[in-house]
Design goal:
The chain is an all-alpha fold and 69 residues long. The chain has a domain of 41 residues. The relative contact order is 0.10. InterPro entries: GH.
């Protein structure tokens, strides 16, 4: 029988990584200002661009520019 922890190991070819998230989020209901009031220090293009209406637009800098403007 395989070790019980083995089910957490990735089944891919990238170092059989183990992903564990033991952090308990405490502030899920915090206030987030509207987009036009936010100051962006760092941005992940894949997460910011596109959206539910156009998932194919994800990961493109031109769509980040359109969304910011």
């Amino acid at each position: 029988m395989a070790n019980e922890l083995s089910k957490f190991f990735s089944k891919n070819k990238i170092n059989n990584s183990l992903f564990l998230d033991e952090y308990e989020w405490k502030y899920d209901n915090c206030y987030l200002p509207p987009d036009e009031e936010l100051v962006i220090y760092e941005i992940h293009v894949g997460d910011f661009s596109g959206g539910d209406n156009d998932p194919n637009a994800r990961g493109q800098f031109k769509n980040v520019k359109e969304k910011i403007d």
